[in-house]
Amino acid sequence: MSTLNTLALSRIPAEDEALRAEVRAFLADAVQALPPHVRARSWGGYSTEFSRRLGARGWIGVTLPPQYGGAGRSAFARYVLVEEFLACGAPVGSHWIADRQSGPLILKYGTEAQKQFYLPRICRGEAFFCIGMSEPNAGSDLASVKTRAVPDAEGFVLKGQKIWTTNAHHCHYMIALVRTSGAAEDRHKGLSQVIVDLSLPGVTVRPITDLSGDSHFCEVFFDNVRLAPDALIGREGQGWEQVTAELAFERSGPERLFSSIVLFDEWLAWVRTPQGRSESALRLAGRIFTELAPLRAMSVSVQEKLTRGESPIVEAALVKELGTTLEQFIPAAIADDLFSRDAGEVPLELLRTLAYVTEVAPSFSLRGGTRDILRGMIARGLGLR
Length: 385
Known about the structure:
This protein has 3 domains: 3-127, Acyl-CoA dehydrogenase/oxidase, N-terminal domain (Butyryl-Coa Dehydrogenase, subunit A, domain 1, Orthogonal Bundle); 131-238, Beta Barrel (Butyryl-CoA Dehydrogenase, subunit A, domain 2), CATH 2.40.110; 253-381, Butyryl-CoA Dehydrogenase, subunit A, domain 3. The protein is built from 13 helices and 8 strands. It has helices spanning 14-17, 19-30, 36-39, 48-56, 75-88, 93-109, 112-123, 239-252, 261-271, 279-307, 313-338, 348-360, 371-381, and strands at 129-132, 148-152, 155-162, 173-179, 191-197, 203-208, 217-227, 232-233. A hairpin with a 2-residue loop joins strand 2 and strand 3 (155-162). The radius of gyration is 21 Å and the shape is globular. The mean pLDDT is 90.
């Protein structure tokens, strides 16, 4: 039984909750052959074929208007889909960014021509996006970006570098936060967002191999890349407002709670057997459930605010900070339990799954905003600094 079955689901509207049965039936067939240590990659798993299968079913861009290829459903419909994808470890990484934030960003700020061109391709699982925010030597200080898109008579000339860009080597486009005027010392002034076709001359993408052996992080270099005028999203100089609104989508979803969920479910299934049962393990399971349930309720509450057109930046930061803390606790606590057992008692596949999640868990509190930055945002939101 999935952990998701034990969490309260009543706050999601019934018409959206009804999606679950169909999605679970599809996923039971689509991912049943994948072992847990592969499914544990969660939203980092990558399969263009799987994304196109979801697109054919109308499960990408589900909140986008029908005239742009979407289903016109509520954000809660997407929430249900995402929960089910993550709970079973479906390989959704290829379309993840485009569906979660690039599509909604283009819908809100893009021109009609941009909407007509990009959104149907996103919905079909044919256009994959990455995020160009972080830069070398900037740490988590996003406002200090130095990558420049210099305006000229033909559009923009893009120069600079981005780093930690997830799946850039697999993506077609990047939405990059760049400086179109002023200097880095100007902070929020002069920042804009541009769509970069990653096949353009002057773009170089270099994957970075992580501790697990995966290479989903990348460095991206721009060497006098020529961008047309229609690369700009929204107004020039409006980039900071746009990117902070975008981060609310990034920080508050189920992916900030469920990155360790495949491991947890595999461990819990074993703990429920006579071979794996122990009182200490059952107490640990109870502790994780009692933390996960209110966090999920908080995440759903942020989703409610987003559906009302609000921008719950502080609330989203709180969900992300608490959620990733729990995500990192899960593999550490499970390791303590498993390595207290007799040698040879623990199933090998469970150990393989634990090994992978342990290797990638440090990134949970880095991606989407580091812990220190988020805590500063929360403190300011509470009037404590």
